Each structure stands twice: as structure tokens, then as C-alpha cells.
Amino acid sequence: MTLRVFITGASSGIGASLARHYAARGATLGLLGRRESALAELAGSLPGEHAIYCVDVAEPAALAVAAADFMARFGLPDVVVANAGVSAGTLTEEADDLAAFARVMHTNLLGMVATFQPFVAPMRARGSGRLVGIASVAGIRGLPGAGAYSASKAAVIAYLESLRVELHGSGVRVVTIAPGYIATPMTAVNTYPMPFMLPADEAARRFVKAIDAGSTYTVIPWQMGVVAKLLRLLPNFLFDRIFARAGRKPRGLPL
């Protein structure tokens, strides 16, 4: 039976790399993103039959229509990857950044909820499926100049844990993936060192392995998992002293 995979944020970066990996395995894909030309180009480069949806995950009604269309054409997905996300440098003291906070939270958290919502009940009824949420190591502790992004990803981690427990015993697996630095357009604007950075295609290969295994929570690459555990253990006074000098993403509109 053909694997069916629905991916948000598929226009570029991790989403596009995941699409290439799944298409190489013969999967039928639903590719959702904000840039129709990029989606069309990606779909045209892949083997097999796929659907594209030019939709912003911050628009739940349009997202629900796309989900319904995919299910009507191809059936209920086996894997849904909520990958869409935006990032921007933000400072609470800047009134102009309130809009950036709202955009980041709406896209990264509420967009994930809206992505999963159309699929949860039918997956539960079928008794199988994978709901995959892309979080971030940045959600483990708050990073300076990244209040919106860190808060959104911390919320994503907590939300996915809640969803996982809600679906316990249903046959539907909730997979949380917390990437470190991945070479994508989102990280390309960063001017500070990014240790253990992975190319997007290699990251996608590791993501797919974790998804296949049904991992409840994994940090990729594993080196960042070690860093994440250490960050959890740092007392506040030491964390504050170290990260007060950390590099910061430039302020601007969310990408």
C-alpha cells in the first residue's frame, strides 16, 4: 500500500527535503506552503503523484479545506508533518515587535494545532498514524533576542506532549522532533556560530528514521541532545551569565 504523507512548510528547507526523501520511497505527498511556484517546482521534480496547496497554516479554514481535499483524493495520510514555522529576532521593549511575537506564536503553535486537527479523529478511528511536530532545541530554555521563537517552541513541546497522552492507546503516535541547527533559509540570516549544523537533506533522513520508529521525543543531531540535557541542568545564575553574551538573530519580520 502506498504511503501517504502530508507536509506543511514544504516550500523549502526541511519540508522540501522531507518531501524528497518520502517521494524516493514511493509515497504520495500533500505539499503545503505559502509559495505556490516553489511548491509546483518541487512537486514537478519528484517521482509519483502529489498535491500542492498554497496555504498559510495561520489560516485554519484554508488548511482544513486542503486537508479535506487530500483525504478525498488520496485517503487518510499515514504521516502528517507539522513543519511550518517562522522565526525573527524580537525584543519585548520594542513596541513594533508585538506583531512579530503574534505572528511567530500564531504560526508555530496554533498553526501546528490547525494542521493536526482535521486528521486526529479519522486517525483515531482507523487506529493508526503518525502526527509529527517539529519543535526546536530553542524551546528548551529561553534564548536572548529570541523570546517569541523560544516561547513558541517551548509551547510546541508541551502541546505535543499533551496530544501524545491524549492519544495514548489509540494507535496514533505523536512524534516530537527538536532540531538543532539545520542549514535552511531560516538559519541563513544568523551571524553567530551554529555548532553541529546539519545539511537539510541529512537532517530529513534522520527525521524520517525517527518518524518510522515512532520516537516520542528526539533531538537531532544527537550532539545537540547532549547540549540540551546540559542546558536543563544549568542553574539560572550560570545560564544567565553565559547566555547574556550569546549571539542574537537580527530583528525583523518573521521568515
Structural features, described:
The strands form two sheets. The chain has a seven-stranded parallel sheet with strand order 3-2-1-4-5-6-9, with helices on both faces. The protein has a two-stranded parallel ribbon with strand order 7-8. With about 260 residues, the chain is an alpha/beta fold. Helix content is about 50%, strand content about 15%. It has a single domain (about 5-245), classed as 3-Layer(aba) Sandwich (Rossmann fold). It is built from nine helices and nine strands. The protein is globular, with a radius of gyration of 18 Å. Strand 1 (about 5-10), helix 1 (about 15-25) and strand 2 (about 30-35) form a beta-alpha-beta unit.
Give short descriptive properties of this protein.
Rossmann fold; alpha/beta; 16% strand; 7-stranded parallel sheet
